[in-house]
Amino acid sequence: MATIKAAILGFGTVGQGIYHILNEKRQELREKLGVELEVTKILVTDASRERVPGTHHLMTESIDEVLAEKGLQVVFEAIVNEEPAFSYLKQAVAHKCHVITANKVMFAKRGAELEALAKANGVFVGYEASVAGGVPIIKTMKNILLVNDVSRVQGILNGTTNYILTKMRAEGWSFDDALKEAQSLGYAEADPFNDVSGQDAFKKLMILSSLAFDEQPNWSDVEVIGIEKITAAQVAEATEKGLRYRHVAEVEKRANGEIHAKVSPLLVDKEHPLYPVDDVFNAVAMETNYIGTLSITGPGAGMYPTASVMVEDYAEIIGKRAGFTVTI
Ligand code: NAP
Ligand code: HSE
User: Are 301 and 133 in contact (CB under 8 A)?
Assistant: First the structure.
C-alpha cells in the first residue's frame, strides 16, 4: 500500500488535534482511502519542548527541513498570523503538496492567491477549519452554490465570544474569568484580542464573502465592534428583559451589487434563531434564492472539532486525487 507523507505546521491546540485524530483513525482512513498516512515532520518555534509523548523526533524549527522531506505530499497548517504562514504554504504548493489550513488571518487576505497557485501546481487547498471550527460551512456552501445564489450570510462566527457571553449570562461569571476559561479550553486565539475585538469573526466573514459572492467588501468600510465593552450589568439587564447578547457577523449583496458587511453585538429575543445558540457554538444562516434560508450550527472552536474537519479535508483531497468521493 502506498504511503502519503504529511507535515503539521504548528503543534498547539489544532496541530495536536490533527496528530491525535490521524492516529486514532489510522486504520479506518487506510481502509477508506487505500493509502497509509505518515506524519513525518512537525514545525514549531521551539523544537526542544515535546508537546505529545513520542513526537520529539518529528519536531523541527525549519520549514526548509520540512519541505526537504522526500515524498512529502500533504501539509496541514495550524500556526498563527498571515506570515510566515502564507510564505510556507506558497513554498509547499510549489513543492506539489496539498495544503490544509485553519488559519483565517492568512486565508482571508491571501486565500485567492494561494488557491490560484495551488491550481497552477495541480494541488488542492482545504480551508474548512478556517471558518466556524467544526461546523462544515465551507463544504455546505460549496455544495449549494452550483445552483443557488446566496444573498446574505449571518451568524455567530466566534466560539470564544459566544462562550464568554453565555457564561456571563448563565453563570454570572466576570468577563475576565470567562475569557480565561475559554483560553484554557483551547478556544481563544493566541492573542485573544482578536476574538473579543471582533477581528477573528471579521476574517471568517471575509472568507465567506469570497466564497458566496466571489469578492470581499473593502476591509476599511466594514464596521467591526467587539464585545469587550459589554458589562456584567448590561448582560443582567438584558436577561431580565428576556434578551440575550449575541456577537453577530453578517455580509450581504445588495440589489445594486454592493457588498455590505458588519460585525457587532446584537440583542436578540427568544424568537430569534440565534437565541438558543449558547456556549462555544457557532451558527450560520445563508439566504438563498432556491433553498430559502439554510442554517447550520455546531462547535465553533476547540481541538477535536477543528482538527476533525481538517482531516475530513485531507480525506476529500485524497479521494478527489484518486477520482472518487470519500464518505467516512
Ligand atoms: P496555538 O495553540 O497557539 O498553537 C500555535 C502553534 O503554532 C504553536 O505550536 C506554535 O509553536 C506554532 N507557531 C506559531 N508561529 C509559528 C512560526 N512562525 N513557525 C512555526 N510554528 C509556529 O494555536 P491554535 O489554537 O492551535 O491555532 C492555530 C491556528 O488555527 C490559528 O491560525 C487559529 O486561528 C486557527 N484555529 C484555531 C481554532 C481553535 O479552536 N483553537 C479553531 C479554528 C482555527 P510553539 O508551540 O513552539 O509556540
Ligand atoms: N478563536 C476562535 C474562536 C477559534 O473562538 O472562534 C476558532 O476559529
Answer: yes
Q: Give me the residues paired with residue 76 across strands.
A: 8, 100
Residues of the domain holding 246 = 137-300
User: Is pLDDT at 267 greater than 90 in this prediction?
Assistant: yes
Whether 203 is a known active-site residue: answer no
pLDDT in tens, 306-323: 999 999 999 999 987 666
The partner residues of 298 in beta bridges, in order of sequence, read 282
Query: Do 9 and 48 lie in a common domain?
Result: yes
Share of the chain above pLDDT 90, in %: 96
Q: Crossing angle, helix 13-24 and helix 26-33, to 10 degrees?
A: 70
Query: What cell numbers appear for 213 in the block?
Result: 459572492
- CA-nearest of 274, 247, 263, 306 to 104 is 306
289 HSE (CA, 13 A, CB side): 9
SS3 327: coil
Q: Which of 204, 229, 241, 320 is catalytic?
A: 204
Domain count, the chain: 2
Question: Which residue do the cell numbers 488559519 mark?
Answer: 103
User: Where residue 118 falls among pLDDT bands split at 50, 70, 90?
Assistant: very high
Ligand 1 site: residues with CB under 6 angstroms?
A: 10-15, 43-46, 78-80, 84, 102-104, 129, 133, 186-187, 189-190, 301-302, 306
Examine the domain organization and report whether 278 and 217 are in the same domain: yes
Query: Please, which residues bridge with residue 287 across strands?
Result: 152, 293
Residues 272, 169 share a domain: yes
Q: What is the 3-state secondary structure (H, E, C) of 70-114?
A: CCEEEEEECCCCCCCHHHHHHHHHHCCCEEEECCHHHHHHHHHHH
- Return the CATH number at 227: 3.30.360.10
pLDDT tens readout for residues 204-221: 999 999 999 999 999 999
pLDDT of residue 322: 64
Bridge partners for 262 per DSSP? 223, 250
